[in-house]
Amino acid sequence: MKNPLKFLQEVKQETFRITWPTKKETMMGAVMVFALASIAAIFFLILDQILKFLLNLVLTINF
After folding, report:
1. Chain centroid to CA 11: how far?
2. Residue 41 counted as domain residue
3. Considering Cα of 41, then 43, then 46, then 47, what sign does the dihedral take?
4. Which of 7, 11, 43, 48 has its CA 20 to 30 A from that of 59?
5. By C-alpha distance, which of 44, 21, 25, 23 is closest to 33?
């Protein structure tokens, strides 16, 4: 097992190597997530309406 102080020093060194995204990159990522979630929501809304229509069509057929 390593010395706890040496471990903390290594953790500190690693934190300096982190490259954080810029504000522009973060905003672009958030916009992309929002756009794709909106597209998925619209797709599933349309799919749900089509399936509802087809199910009502099948259930209302009288023989």
Report:
1. 29
2. yes
3. negative
4. 43
5. 25
